[in-house]
Each structure stands twice: as C-alpha cells, then as structure tokens.
Amino acid sequence: MNPHPDDTAVAVAGSDGAQPALAPPTDPAGSPAARVRGARKVFGRTVAVDLIDLDVPAGSVLGMLGPNGSGKTTLIRMLLGLTRPTAGTAELLGHPVPDAAAAALPFVGALVEGPGFHPFLSGRENLRRAATAEPLLTGREIPAAVETALERVGLTDAAGRRYRGYSLGMKQRLGLAAALLVPRRLVVLDEPTNGLDPAGTRDVRRIIAELHTGGATVLVSSHLLAEVEATCTHVAVLQSGSLVAAGELSRLLEADTSGLVITTPDVDAALRTLRGAGATAFLDGDGAVVVADGGPPAPEIIALLVRAGVAMYEARRRRPRLEELFARLTEDTP
Amino acid sequence: MTPAPQPPPRTASTAPLGRLLAAEVRWVLLRPRTLVMLGLFALIPVVIAIGVVVADGSGGRGLIGATAGNGLVLPVAAMTLALTLLLPLAVAMAAADAIAGETAHGTLRGLLLAPVGRLRLVGMKASGVFVVAVLATGLIAVVGVLAGLVVVGGADGQLVTLSGTTIGLGDALGRVALVAAWTVGQLAAVGAVALAISALTEHPLIVLASVLGGLIVFGVLGAIPALDFLQPYLLTSGWTAGADALRDPLPLGGMGESTLRALGYAVVGGGLTVALMLRRDA
Fold this sequence. Notes:
Chain B: It comes from Pseudonocardia asaccharolytica DSM 44247 = NBRC 16224. Chain B: GO terms for molecular function: ABC-type transporter activity. The complex is a heterodimer of chains A (334) and B (282). With 334 residues, chain A is α/β, with parallel strands linked by helices. Chain A has helices at 9-18, 72-79, 101-104, 123-132, 142-152, 168-179, 198-213, 225-231, 249-255, 267-276, 298-307, 322-331, and strands at 34-43, 46-56, 61-65, 87-92, 95-97, 108-111, 186-190, 217-222, 234-239, 242-248, 260-263, 281-283, 289-291, 314-317. In chain A, the strands form three sheets. Chain A has a six-stranded mixed sheet with strand order 6-7-8-3-9-10, with helices on both faces. Chain A has a four-stranded antiparallel sheet with strand order 2-1-4-5. Chain B has a two-stranded antiparallel sheet.
C-alpha cells in the first residue's frame, strides 16, 4: 500500500492493521506527525491536488502557503480523513487515513474550513457538545476542559452568549477553542486568523508558540505570509494543486540569500574597486551594487570601499522575505 | 499562559455511546424549533376538543364527529389526523437538521473529527429523530386523553366504541397507547427515509421537500384505482388503520400489515443512510 518501503512508518501502519484501533498512537521518534504520498484529488474535471508528497515533521510548525484554490484545504481534508484521496495515501501520527483515522484523531485538534457551531446554542454549550464527542475526556472532565479552552482563546466573558450573535473573530476563537479542548499531539489550523483583529492574530501566534513549546506539531494554512514567517519552522508552498517548495523556513530563505547589497552614488567606482579585489560584483535592477558571497567577507568589502573613497549610503545583507520567495514560487509557474 | 498539561495515558478511541446519545437528545431538545413544534402538537387535541364543544354535539360525520360525548375517540382522532401530514413533517424536520443541517453548519465535520465513528453517528442521529417522533406522538396522545376526559367527558368510565359497545377506561387507555406505538412505528419509517435523504444532501430544505412531495405522490398514487397493485407498497396506504382501535372487537390486521410495511421502509432507509454516511465527504 505504501509506495516507500524504506519508510519507518510502514512498520507502524502494518502493525496497526492487525490491532484494534484502541492503543494510543506509538509512532517511532522521527516519524512525521502527518504525511501524504502521491496524494491526488479530483473533483469532476478539476484536479484539486495533484500528486503531492509531503511530510509534516513531528514537533514542527508547518505553514502551508498558497494562493486561493491551490489545494491547501483539500490536502488538509485528505489528511484528516474527511475526504478520500482519488489516489495516493495519507498518514496521521503513523496511522493510515482514513481507514485507521480513529486511532489518531483523538490526539488531533482541527479547525478546518472555518468554525462550525450551532447558532442557537451559547459558545459554552457549543463547546460542551463538541467535548462530549472527545474520546479522551471523561464525563467529569468536560466542564473544566471547556472552561480552560474558553480561557485560552480569551472567550470566557462571551461564553454565555448565543453563537448567533458572535462576531467573525469570536467565532474563529471558538473554533480554535474546540481544537484545543484536549492536549493534542497535532493541531491543524486552516486559516486560523481569518476575521481576527490584530489582538486576535497575536493570540493565535501565542497559542501556536505554546503548542510548539509543549511539543505538539502544528499544521497551519494561511495566506498571511508575515504570520507564517513569524510562527513557522517549516513551510510548504502549494500552487495549482502541486507542491512547489517544502522544507525548513530558514533553509528555504537561506538558499535564496546571496551577497551584500551596497547603495552608492558612485556605482562605477564601486564596481571597479570590488572587481579589482577579486569579488563578484554586479548591478541589480534597482541600481544597487550586489556583491556575491564567496569572495572577501563583508567587513573587508566595506573597508575596501571606504579606503578607495567610494561614497556609501548603506550596506546590508541581501535577505529575501518570505513574501518575495512566495511571489517567485507562485507567480513564475504557469 | 500556563503550558498545556501532559496528555494522560488514555486508550479510548471513541466517546461512550451513552454520552453521545444523551448529548444528541439534549441538542434536539435545546433547539427552539423542536420546542415550538412540540407545543403546537400539544395544541392539536385541544383545538379538536374545543371545536367539538363549540359544535355542541350537533355532530357530523367521520372520526371528529364521533368525538362528541366520547373521550376515547379524541386522542385517536388527533393522532390519525396528525399522521397524515404534521407528524411526518416534524420527523422530516428533525432528520433534516440531523445530518444535512449539521453539514450546513459545519458541525458534522467536528463530530467526525472528534472522532465519532460514522456508524455511531448514524445511531446517534436516528435516536434523535426517534425521540422527536416519540415525544410528538406521546404529547398528542396524553393531551388528547386529558382533553377528551375533561372537555368531552368520561361518561362514568365507560367509553363507547365505534361499533357501539362500551369498554372500560383501562382498556381505552391501552388502545390509545397501542395507536401511539403504531404511529411511532410509521414515523420511524418516515424518519429512516428522511435520514437517508439527509445523508445525501447538505440542504435541509431538500429533505423536507422530498418527504412532503413523497407523501403527496403516495397519496395520489393510492387514490388511482388503476394503480391498486401499488397499494401494498405505499407507506401511506395503511395510515387510516389507527381508527381500528375504536372498533370492538379490536381488529389488528390493518395495523399489523402497515407496521410490517413500515419496517420494510425503515430497513431500506436505515441501510441507505448507513451506506451513504460511510462514503460521505464532510
């Protein structure tokens, strides 16, 4: 079933097939919290997700990026067993999904496709109803778990009001609370900051950080690049149903980093001096001088220019923001 | 913020069934429309009783006319009347909310992710619908008996059947209970089919429209003599059998036959619901 026989999770998946789905997931260390292999989902004639291989490393905070309609939500739904892949396999905490999803889902909290609650019930009552379905909570623990979750998302004061009257941000907070009812090993948040004010966005960031510190894995999809850059350790970029980049955020950004950017009114003199010293220097589109890495180190280059009497406004490392990386990854491809 | 406590070593992969069922019934009963609906059902026998008093024994034909001066007839007449349209509508509404409505609100996803197994979910939902059927029918029966005794009169504990004989109060109550149980059986069939439709769509209105449309089509088909061969298969064709309880001796053939038919519908509807829910995307 799994096309990658060398994967460690194969053994887990195999032994789970023989056992009843009651034992807590015992994925070996290093095995990803979630993975898909060759995942493909076709709705009618639309290919929503096309042959994606992705690992969500245990303990990571993975930001899933992509333009609207790039397949983020479909991929998440496949991972959670809400929809069956047309082809390929998915695993959650080492358990094949959707067939053995029941073994993993108690340890997974999710906010997918917006919060879903009943308008005629209060926030607290809605959460209580969600809590009754949580396998890991005993009946006696439910009230305390509900209050803790409400407090964690800052909704205690509004908990007695009907969901009908909640603002978009409060609804989103309640959805987040439902995902946090039980201590989770994996939390999946689909566009968690939708409709949130700056304070709410900060709260989400804080909650993600708390989960990360507590050892949980977080999978968060977003189109707010600054959010992802601030909270995530890993990123996966989707474009038209395909994965165009995935990996550690710092590495992805680093791979794109090259050189020193020098702003000067004396472009020709600067280029001459630098090239004479054996550095690779060229002009970028904005009229700044870029010195590629590999030649003399930055302090030497600056000293060189100063000694040569080249006027300088600024010298800084060229470090692309996630935004630039994202734009390049998603706009160049057809 | 305090860090999240360590997960305790637990082994459960599903919440206890009793807790799920209780939560479902609680949810059904907290829903304002359920309460309004039940209140209206309680009014049906009252309205009939008032009508009978106002008409003051001048009579009329049929079941309602026979109510005059006879407390036994009232609850049975009210249930028979409600079964033609109102009770199936109530059950269809509960079934529509149960799956299609939960999908529309995005709450079905939450239940599946908890996770509540899909088979359990069908059991939960069926129980919720069944509770509505029992409560609605029970309300009509109880209020009907009370209204019958208070407004129309108990005739010294002797109740006259349609066949002209009299029976005691205990016997009469037993017959009302029989009709109530039979009515719930018929409603279970409607509910099972409605749940199957509910599992097929995410628009609650489609469920209501389908059930209402189905009842009307069944009624029309049943009224066409050339289509008599269809009679044994139409759920609605046995729905007048409740009035049999007012005859003496009690003929059970009609109710028995329609109960078997209802069972058939319930099995098909239930099976379809399970099959659809096992494959449904959420």
